[in-house]
Fold these 2 entries.
Entry 1:
Amino acid sequence: MINPIINFNPNFSSLAKTKQAPKAEQAVTNVLTNPIQRPKLPQPTTMMALLYNNISFTGKKEDLVRSFGHVSCPCCGTKMLTNNDMDKIKKDLGREDSAQHYVNTLKPYEEFMHKPEKGTFNKFEAWEKENPKSTFKAFMEENRVSSIKACKESQLNTFAQINEVAKSVTPEIGEKFAQLTENYAKMPTETEEAMKNIRKSMIADIKDSKSKIEDEEKYKQLQKLADSLPTSKNSADAFIVKYAGQPSSKVGARLLKLSVGTIEHVKPQANGGRDRVENYLLECGECNHTRGDVSLHDWVEAHPEMKENTQKYMDEVIEKINNGELSPELDNYPNAVKGALKEQSKGSLTYDTSALKPKENQRPTKNDKSEKSEKPQKPNKPNKPHHKPHRLNIAA
Ligand SMILES: [Zn+2]
């Protein structure tokens, strides 16, 4: 069994102390953690350019933020994976096709899965006990028909609830929604695409009726119900319907693929958002992809849980900073990104950074560090690493 937490080691200072650390890792460790180099360089931007241009595979400031590793997504709260984890998972899945091997490989990563993915995995896990020699693909195909049925039932149940709420608004609205849901109930749900369309139309219908629904609470209730109509984003059954028939390896990797941490620009680049650490959030692929061009303000409005999750994310980052697990370049990250988040969310997204301990109490002194570190490298003479980027944890 593989424990992803143990495997992932973003601790630069511990790398610095390890004499056996591979050359590439040592080079990065020296550049990132050596406190002597940085103050001597004149401009922060020049300094960054010099430091990071030296490391071919960590040439982006984004990699600093990726080095947070297994922290919770500030948006949905799911624990995030690294690209390294994902490479390893794909490789491991490729070793053997049996259902038993798939369960054993994926099980340690269960806590990193989003709800529909985890639901699918748990069903598969139960099924595997009876069919250890079969495959993940066989499981998906075997369950497709019952999952279509389950999605249909879930839809009808939600329609009934929508009708109840609509009736209580006005008789006119009640009648309108009774008609709409009756039509939708007749539509097939053989594919996930069809389910998605029904959900989308229902959401649009509710929006169209907004002017006729005076009771704000009831309007929100209707929105929430329409939102919960099954798609692969919220239902394991819809997920099974969508991916049944595809190769085991693809769907196996898909259970975790969107849990990998990606760089989200707080202020979109299209609106002048800059490529700077204080404009980055590490966000899971799912949230990053789903948010698309929606403004942070609108997104937070629609996902109030983001306030709590952002605090959780920052608390985890702060703990890593306090423990000296991250590059000193990130010491001010929790405070620096606060401004961008506040601005982009029009004040609705903020968090507490009081847990961040003052640097001088936490960091080893210069003398401590220089004793432990090897001789600093000259910024203009890069020591090109021979190792492949994916072997380096922080480049994940
Ligand atoms: Zn997320």
Entry 2:
Amino acid sequence: MSLLHIPYSCGALANPKPKLSNSWRSRPERKKRHVIARASSPPVAEEGELDIPRWAGETPLSRLVGALISFKPFYSLMKLGARRVLISTAEKSNIPWRDMTREILESNVYEEMENVRNPSLVYPDYYLNPFHAYDEGNLSWLAAAEAEAATLSIAKRAIPDSSSTNEANEILRGNWLQAIEEHHLQHSGSNIYDILDIGCSVGVSTRYLANQYPSANITGLDLSPYFLAVAQYKDKQSPVRSNPIKWIHANGESTMLPSKSYDLVSLAYVLHECPARAIRGLLKEAFRLLRPGGTIALTDNSPKSKVLQGLSPVLFTLLKSTEPFLDEYYLLDLEETMRATGFVNVTSVLTDPRHRTVTDHLSDLWICISI
Ligand SMILES: C[S@@+](CC[C@H](N)C(=O)[O-])C[C@H]1O[C@@H](n2cnc3c(N)ncnc32)[C@H](O)[C@@H]1O
């Protein structure tokens, strides 16, 4: 059993380079192991026995849940239930979901839409599905107004014994940033000048990246102009940054941005919302956008997470009713898909009990090929 000790505190980000054991660097073996441990208490993250949860993919249980969800009256019930569970669990964790939402909906956020929306963008089909219990998926003001509270809630669910939501968020984001930093230092070592955050939503991941790399140029890119409007509105409410964030409304599969122009491309919590064909498209585009030596960082649900494998039937049914492509995400061998895209040194690590961070870099070999 290998342990990874990550000393953390609420200020984990202020001190982003805690000591890591060598296990951080090695590819996880396919055997049960503890991955993350707190400095002063027992391990909190563990892989389960399976490669993917029984409720996902093509197992009989997964098919049964899929059939139930495809029955409209059941789906409507689940959708309502999912919203209720989401909001009440958030508020039990002291996340002021309704207040945060009201604050956005009653603000001038609507004025940002004009500046941020690309009227000629054609949405991929999958994006027009209902998501997260919103009929319009990510294309609505309600989804945009609730996104930050939902993000905080994800952190608290991932690290339930943290003393506060803020602490949970710092751990979840701190461990992710640390995995990126470690990979980049080990395999590239070059400075990070330009960062692209694909699927930036309302900008939470983008701001963490901007704070971690204050001298880099940061771009957040998303398909939802509603989310980007909130991201931009929030910027205007915050102190001016030395590295202002640029927000782009585009499809991450075909960004139209110049090739080899980023040192870090991040996709945080994006892939589980996408069908396999879109995941392949996103990886291919990230590969095109990276400079030689640049790092790609994907963070999302881990199919091997013991916690996710052990979800109760009620919870996994609610989850599947709000995430139309979850089965495709779990079935896809992400590391293998990355290799097929051209990445050569894929590293995957559980950065909290529910999520993995998968990193790789564009080999310098590509310099030789491209000159
Ligand atoms: C869960 S949110 C991401 C949250 C954010 N990255 C964070 O860590 O806080 C997933 C985002 O991916 C975006 N998305 C999905 N498919 C996309 C695509 N093809 N191109 C760009 N954004 C996409 C959605 O609009 C949504 O905002």
